[in-house]
Design brief:
Elements: H1 3-17, E1 23-25, E2 31-34
Antiparallel strand pairs: 1-2
């Protein structure tokens, strides 16, 4: 399994739990997803 697949599964499970605020970033620090509203002020 590729590392991106593991990260995707972890993100999905944490978000589906409904308990965690989760933000995902690329290796260079670019934000790519979050399960909460962060507006455009990353």
């Amino acid at each position: 399994m590729e590392s991106w697949q593991l990260a995707e599964r972890l993100y999905t499970r944490l978000v589906s739990a409904g308990t965690y605020l989760v933000a995902a970033f690329l290796d260079d620090g670019t934000p790519i997803d979050a399960n909460f509203d962060v507006d455009d002020d990353w």
